[in-house]
Design brief:
Elements: E1 3-7, H1 14-26, E2 30-32, H2 40-52, E3 55-60, H3 78-88, E4 93-98, H4 111-127, E5 131-133, H5 136-158, E6 167-169, H6 187-198, E7 206-211, H7 218-228, E8 233-240, H8 244-257, H9 267-277, E9 281-287, H10 292-295, E10 305-311, E11 321-323, H11 329-340, H12 345-354, H13 359-372, H14 376-385, H15 387-390, H16 403-417, H17 419-429, H18 438-441, H19 454-465, H20 467-478, E12 484-487, E13 490-492, H21 495-504, H22 507-524, H23 535-548, H24 554-565, H25 569-585, H26 594-609, H27 613-630, H28 636-652, H29 656-673, H30 679-694, H31 698-715, H32 721-736, H33 740-757, H34 763-781
Helix pairs in contact: 1-5, 2-3, 8-9, 11-12, 11-13, 12-14, 16-17, 17-19, 17-20, 17-21, 19-20, 22-23, 23-24, 24-25, 25-26, 26-27, 26-28, 27-28, 28-29, 28-30, 29-30, 30-31, 30-32, 31-32, 32-33, 32-34, 33-34
Length: about 800
């Protein structure tokens, strides 16, 4: 254990001083840092402490510091006096030169003091070989290398054995790791790492690759794990693994720290040998590795050790991968509140959702809010207007960059090495932040290429035509964790990846990719929203259709129809309301355009199905007046509105006799204009049968339904929703006409078909179940309320 004096100014280098002290304590050194209020007494005690230390460490920034007025002819600061005293006493000196300039905490605005800073930095550069750093990780790398080298020289000069203690180089422990005491979301992950790395068969090194999106906190988790287990290991060393040359230098430095002389052989082989023979455990962290091939030769093959690898690349051997997810939104909001002291929970929750729980973005937001004095609410409002600018600002003290800089290199590399993958990412950036059915979208379809801009088609067409090319593009994106698997044929893209990808495109190019996404999504939407087997596809495409399709597109109309047909009546009503408004306001249509009238008819229908029969009736009555004038009284659309709309919802609103009268008058007109077996004519017959029964003639209703059913089975199909509805009504009116046993049998036969075709929780299926229960009891007791 060595006695190490730490020297620096305080105001501007508080985080750096604490990181240095933490590292020295972890390395089992005694730290001396005698700082109290500025005075000559402090100057004297500091210089005395320098005389008694083994090693002197200087952290030098851009602030000069306090200049004692007494016995100080050159008017030097205490920090510069300490540096000179260490040199005069022959103490080993390690200097760490900060290249990050925080103008608000520096002397750059004062020409006289700036000259003192520059002269001091020049003196340090002349007398020692300072290690320059731009972030805390670089600071610790320079510190560990310098301190361990100076102690080795000192031991050799004094001919004394190397003192016991860990061989250590780790980044500073995260000040507030998302998921520690303040935010418990990471504790489970750390416990899982402990379980994986503590055990293992064969006694060889245990290897875990922490993968995830840039900014998800992989390095923070790895460093926190390492700090928690320092007492168990003799070596804890963190390598920068992004570049193989830098990684090789890291092994040279570790070999020196382990006692190997420079030039004694391959440092990787030397380190592997020393670790294999070490009795104590050891822990190596390979940070930001590009992939398995990049570190394979460096990972020790033997020894009682643990290897943690952080990587954006998700493609590692089975059993090694642990994904570091983004934070739960509630945890993320509590992190923001705790870090900033802002009690505005709604703003914290909104900001957590806006950045998708990404730890780096959360830390950035907190750092920027603290630096500017803004509340989280103010930051959120600014983020919604200036997202791209804010993602490049507010670098947290213990991170190596911002969200923008963290992802910039990945985007650039994709653009050059895998342009199709870059194009696919742009396509996915246009979608909603939900699971994206990429396999469904990347299908060749006639005429689709003609709807793409030439620049987009050049990149996208090969992915549509060749599933292997599409697979290669997805693999390239997974190597950077820019997409994650969300199931068979599904991928997820973090909302900020989508946002940054979109922000980096020029407006014209962004519009072309948005158009491409709309074309692919619309082409993938099934043609018939009434077919239940297509509903899972509709469900997957729905959020993405809402994100990219115009409200007046045919694809979104099919989506709205699917919502209603599948039982989501309120959602169908609300979407048709938006579609109808869009048609009315669309310059090419207007309030009386045929497409607008169709949208209004659908809106009226789903208003009724959502529970407002009188509102639907009134909407249809207003629509009929417009259609009579614009289309004509016997136009097919007008007839549909009268029979399937106005008459139906007149009856639903309580006037069964009025509905029956309207339908009786309308049926011969529909048979003449549309044809006796036209689906709309069949719908009028069904409604007439229903309201004949509702008006009091159950037997006539039963007979009309019985006559209608075989026609619908032949024309529409035996499992068409309208056919199933007629079967349901026939069973009901059979019972109401006095044949409870007949109703029971018909409902019992219908239920399994509806469960299979519509689903067990569809409203029509549930109604049939209720009727089956009722008519079961009715067949025995001939009493009880009806279910309709």
């Amino acid at each position: 254990m060595a006695k190490v004096y730490v020297s620096s100014t305080i105001v501007d280098l508080e985080a750096e001083r604490q990181a240095v002290i933490d590292w020295l304590v972890a390395a089992q050194h005694q730290v001396v840092h005698s700082y109290r209020p500025n005075s000559d007494t402090v100057r004297d005690s500091c210089l005395d402490d320098v005389d008694t230390c083994d090693v002197y460490v200087l952290i030098l920034g851009h602030r000069y510091g306090f200049q004692p007025p007494q016995d100080n002819p050159e008017h030097l600061s205490i920090t510069q006096l300490e540096f000179r005293r260490a040199g005069q006493s022959g103490k080993p000196r390690v200097a760490l030169l900060n290249h990050i300039l925080d103008a608000s905490l520096s002397d750059v605005a004062d020409p006289q003091r700036l000259a003192l800073v520059q002269a001091f930095r020049a003196e340090v550069a002349r007398e020692v070989r300072p290690a320059e750093f731009r972030d805390l990780q670089g600071l610790i790398q320079g510190l560990s290398t310098g301190v361990q080298a100076e102690l080795a020289k000192l031991d050799q000069r004094l001919d004394r054995p190397r003192p016991a203690g860990p061989v250590l180089r780790l980044a500073p422990r995260p000040a507030v790791l998302p998921g520690r005491e303040e935010l418990p979301g990471r504790e489970e992950l750390l416990a899982g790492l402990d379980a994986r790395l503590a055990g293992g068969e064969g006694g060889g090194p245990r290897v875990v690759a922490l993968t995830g999106l840039g900014g998800a906190g992989k390095t923070s988790v790895a460093v926190e794990y390492a700090h928690r287990h320092l007492a168990r290991v003799g070596v804890a060393w963190q390598f920068a693994a992004e570049d193989s040359a830098v990684l090789a230098v890291g092994f040279t430095e570790l070999a020196a720290a382990l006692g190997f002389r420079e030039g004694a052989g391959d440092p990787v082989v030397a380190v592997h040998g020393a670790l294999a023979a070490a009795a104590a455990g050891w822990l190596l962290v390979f940070d930001n590795a590009p992939g398995p091939d990049a570190v394979e030769a460096f990972v020790p093959p033997a020894g009682n050790g643990q290897v943690l690898i952080t990587s954006r690349n998700a493609l590692w051997p089975p059993g090694q991968v642990v994904e570091v997810p983004v934070l739960d939104l509630d945890v993320a909001a509590r992190f923001l509140a705790a870090r900033t002291g802002d009690t505005g929970w709604q703003a914290a929750a909104g900001l957590a959702e806006a950045v998708g729980g990404l730890p780096l973005a959360l830390a950035q937001a907190a750092a920027y809010a603290q630096a500017t004095g803004n509340s989280l609410g103010t930051y959120l409002a600014l983020f919604q207007r200036r997202r791209a600018d804010l993602l490049a600002r507010g670098q947290p003290a213990r991170y190596g960059g911002t969200v923008a800089t963290s992802w910039a290199l990945a985007f650039t590399q994709l653009e050059h090495s895998a342009p199709r993958a870059a194009g696919l990412l742009r396509l996915l950036a246009c979608c909603a932040p939900e699971a994206i059915p990429v396999r469904l979208l990347l299908q060749p379809r006639p005429g689709l290429a003609d709807r793409l801009a030439p620049e987009v088609a050049q990149v996208l067409t090969p992915l549509l035509d060749d599933e292997l090319a599409a697979g290669d593009a997805l693999a390239a994106l997974r190597r950077y964790s820019l997409v994650t698997s969300a199931g068979d044929g599904l991928v997820s893209v973090h909302r900020l990846v989508q946002a940054v990808t979109a922000d980096q495109m020029p407006a014209g190019l962004a519009a072309q990719w948005h158009q491409a996404a709309a074309a692919l999504i619309e082409a993938a939407i099934p043609a018939d929203p009434e077919l239940p087997e297509a509903w899972p596809v509709y469900a997957m495409l729905l959020p993405h259709a809402r994100a990219v399709l115009a409200l007046t597109s045919s694809g979104l109309r099919r989506i709205a129809a699917y919502l209603g047909q599948s039982g989501s009546y309120l959602a169908a009503r609300d979407l048709w309301h938006l579609i109808a408004d869009a048609y009315r306001e669309y310059d090419a249509c207007g309030p009386e355009h045929p497409d607008t009238l169709v949208a209004l008819a659908n809106l009226a229908w789903w208003i009724g199905r959502a529970g407002n029969a009188a509102g639907a009736r009134d909407q249809y009555a207003a629509l009929v007046l417009i259609q009579d004038r614009v289309l004509g009284a016997e136009h097919p659309e007008t007839l549909i509105t009268r029979g399937g709309g106005l008459a139906l919802w007149t009856g639903e609103a309580g006037d069964a006799a009025g509905a029956r009268g309207q339908l009786t008058d309308l049926l011969p007109v529909s048979e003449r204009v549309l044809g006796a077996e036209h689906p709309d004519t069949l719908a009028i017959r069904g409604n007439l049968a229903r309201f004949t029964g509702e008006a009091g003639d159950a037997a006539a209703a039963r007979d009309q339904y019985a006559a209608l059913l075989p026609v619908e089975e032949r024309v529409l199909g035996p499992e068409h929703p309208d056919t199933l509805d007629t079967r349901h009504s026939l069973a009901f009116w059979t019972g109401r006409a006095g044949d409870a046993a007949g109703a029971l049998g018909q409902f019992a036969a219908l239920l399994p078909i509806e469960e299979r075709v519509l689903g067990p929780e569809h409203p029509d299926t549930l109604t049939t179940r209720g009727n089956l229960a009722y008519w079961t009891g009715r067949a025995d007791s001939q009493s009880g309320p009806t279910v309709k």
